[in-house]
C-alpha cells in the first residue's frame, strides 16, 4: 500500500527516527511501544501513533545528560562518552577503564560510519572486550529499558522500509541542530560563566601541579624500593585460568554424577526404589551442571577464535 500510494519509504523511515529523537531529547515524553501495528501514515506522509497505553517519561536532568551524551557521540569523544555514561549511571568507574575507553573509541570511529563484519570487529577489540566482560563496569538503568526496546523496533522498521537505512545519517542533521542550539545557549552570560569556570580550573591545576609532581616522585621511589607493586593483567592467562576452573568443576560434576548413577543402579537391583530414584535425580542434576559447564567452555573457545 505504501508503494501503491507513491509514498517515500526512506522519508517515512527517517521521520520515524526523527520523531523519536524529538520525543526523547526534547520533550522527554515518548511512545514506548512503536511497533508497526501502532504506527500509520497520513496522506501527507506524516506519522500517526496509536495505543498510548505504554508511555515513557524521562526527567529533565536525565534528558540533559542524554543530550550531553548525544553531543559526545556526535563529536566522537570517547572520554566525554565515558563521562556521560557515568553520569547516567550506565557505567561504573571501576575496573579496566582504559579498555572501556579504547572500545568506545573503536565503536565511535567505525560502527557509526559503517557496519563492519562482526567477527572482524571482535577481532580488532577482542582483548579489550574480554577485559570489559571480566570487570562488568556497564549497568543497564531501568529508565532506558523502553528507550532501547523502542529504538530496536524502529531500526528494524527502518531496514525493512529502506535497505540503505542509516541511523547516523538520519541523526546527523538533528545533531547539528542541537549543536547550534547549544552554541546559542552558551553565548552571552553563560559564555562568560563558562570562561570563568575554565579560568578557575586552569588556576586550580596550576596551583596543584607542584603537589602532583611530588606525588609522582614518591610513587617512583616506592616502585624502586619495592614498597609498591603493580598488578599487570595478562588476559590470556585469565582466560586460561577461567577455562581451567570450569573444566575442573565439570570433572567434579562427572565424578559425582557417575557415582550417583552407579548408586541408583545398585539400589534398583536391591529393590530400594526410593533411594534409587533419589540417586537418579541427583545424577540428572549433576549431568545438567556438566552440560552447562561444557557450553561455557565452548563459548570461551569461540570467543578466543574471534580474537
TrEMBL record:
The keyword Membrane applies. Keywords: Membrane, Transmembrane, Transmembrane helix. Residues 2-83 form the ABC1 atypical kinase-like domain. It comes from the Eukaryota. The chain crosses the membrane at residues 246-268, 274-291. InterPro entries: ABC1_dom, Kinase-like_dom_sf, UbiB_kinase. Pfam families: ABC1 (PF03109). SUPFAM superfamilies: Protein kinase-like (PK-like). Belongs to the protein kinase superfamily. ADCK protein kinase family. This is ABC1 atypical kinase-like domain-containing protein. It comes from Solanum stoloniferum.
